[in-house]
Write a structure and sequence with these properties.
This protein is α+β, with helices and mostly antiparallel strands and about 450 residues long. The chain has 14 helices and 16 strands. The strands form five sheets. It has a seven-stranded mixed sheet with strand order 1-10-7-2-3-4-11, sandwiched between helices. It has a three-stranded antiparallel sheet with strand order 5-6-16. It has a two-stranded antiparallel ribbon with strand order 8-9.
């Protein structure tokens, strides 16, 4: 297993002259936490996770504002009464939260397709916070819908069906969620005073580039788009309308040469990283104003005690780890059209095994794959799988491991990105609501996976 490096906040409280003594106001602990993170760890706090993290960490740092903050957050009190696709908690020391990002055009509206889907996992035993990005275009079975893109579950049945689907296909025990309306990012960015972003000429002037998207964003707000358009490439201090337009570009490569969905996701991560940095630079007295802008765009099932507990944990010294489902190694086809539109096709049962190892046992995906191999057994009938296929039919046992060993399949059509947190699929724009009724495989390894949605 790879060596892990803890973020040692306590080192900042010692009398060691080589380390800076803690003499600042309360917010210094917050800033120390951020400054100690490696760049890749800052980047992983993308979109939804970043906004939730801002709220949680503000709760932890600005103690006098806790009641004000908690009172403003919209709660979903009916969520925990729903069927969430699991019966028993897997590990009482691991708390999993589903994070969803939607692009609604109305304050207080958290419906529609979830453009961003993540799992935030807090493990008190090994003092880690793990963030797993779930590709929205993943082809999965959805209870009452059929086989469709993963984000279809949210649009068809809201957070309860989305969480139920994630729990069923991967055998997890997610019991809470938070949804962020990404369209509200403009107000939040304006609240911190804007952010600096570098753009190319293609990003500015291409069809569905920044200036065209500025029009789409500004007009519904009653703003004159000409006041917000940018005409020269380079680094610009962007306001909320400009930054949101930038984050939505997918038609052309970004400054790093990345395009399509992967390029758009990378832009969103850049925006969120800049936003986090600006939020951390604010004085404590400015936090209530930021919270007032942020909370109308957040809805969660987390109660007050859960929020405070999470905030306290995050403000401590957790080790941050990240992963993505699917990983490049086990994608069968990154542009699979067995249901009509482009989807990302992989064996979700195998992905569930990797998730269990990562979230509950602390085994990194690369280490799991090195020890157990890769399973690319097809399950979708249109691709050549059968209704009775199971991953165990092509999976042997590794005598040196307690986990099943996957069979290598050299006929992969990955097309996946080498990025450690996001893989792109097709560059086509679609609504993600394509479905079929083919029956996926039934797990035989004990994983709590039930494609048909019955318990």
């Amino acid at each position: 297993m790879s060596n892990k490096k803890d973020v040692d906040i306590n080192a900042f409280y010692t009398g060691d002259k080589s380390k800076r003594k803690y003499k600042r106001r309360k917010r210094s602990k917050f800033k120390v936490f951020w400054s100690k993170l490696a760049p890749w760890k800052k980047v992983l706090l993308s979109v939804t996770a970043s906004l939730l993290a801002i709220i949680l960490l503000i709760v932890a740092v600005a103690g006098i504002y806790i009641n004000v903050i908690l009172a403003k957050i919209e709660r979903d009190k009916e969520f925990k009464k729903q069927d969430l696709g699991f019966e028993n908690v897997i590990d009482k020391d691991v708390f999993n939260i589903a994070l969803f990002g939607v692009d609604s055009r109305k304050v207080g509206d958290f419906s529609g397709l979830s453009d961003s889907m993540m799992i935030l996992s807090v493990n008190k035993k090994d003092n880690t916070v793990k963030i797993v990005s779930l590709m929205r275009d993943s082809l999965v079975p959805i209870d009452g819908v059929g086989n469709a893109k993963l984000n279809t579950a949210y649009s068809k049945g809201g957070p309860s069906l989305a969480v139920k689907t994630i729990n069923q296909i991967f055998g997890l025990d997610i019991s809470a969620y938070a949804t962020v309306n990404f369209f509200g990012m403009g107000d939040i960015i304006d609240a911190v005073g804007g952010i600096d972003i570098e753009v190319t000429e293609d990003e500015l002037f291409a069809e569905k580039g920044l200036n065209e998207l500025v029009e789409q964003h500004a007009k519904p707000l009653g703003k004159n788009p000409e006041d917000y358009k940018i005409y020269t490439a380079g680094v610009h201090h962007m306001n909320g309308i400009q930054a949101v337009a930038y984050a939505r570009i997918r038609a052309v490569p970004n400054i790093n040469g990345t395009s399509n969905d992967f390029g758009r996701t990378e832009r969103q991560r850049i925006v969120m990283q800049k936003l986090m940095e600006k939020a951390l630079s604010l004085e404590v007295s400015a936090l209530p104003g930021l919270v007032n802008k942020l909370v109308p765009y957040v809805k969660t099932s987390l109660n007050n005690s859960e929020l405070v507990s999470l905030a306290t944990f995050l403000a401590g010294k957790p080790q941050l780890l990240q992963s993505r489902v699917p990983g490049d190694d086990y994608i069968i086809n990154a542009d699979y059209r067995g249901t009509g539109a482009s989807t990302v096709y992989y064996n979700y049962e195998y992905a569930g095994k990797l998730l269990h190892a990562f979230l509950y046992r602390g085994i990194l995906p690369d280490d799991y794959i090195a020890q157990n191999g890769v399973d690319k057994t097809p399950w979708h009938v249109a691709y050549g799988g059968s209704a009775n296929n199971t991953s165990s039919e092509s999976t042997g046992e590794n005598p040196n491991s307690s986990e099943p060993t996957g069979s290598e399949n050299s006929s992969s059509e990955d097309g996946g990105s080498t990025d450690s947190s996001i893989t792109s699929s097709s560059g086509e724009e679609d609504n993600g609501n394509d479905v079929t009724t083919s029956t996926p495989s039934t797990p035989t390894d004990g994983t709590t996976t039930n494609p048909e949605g019955t318990q």
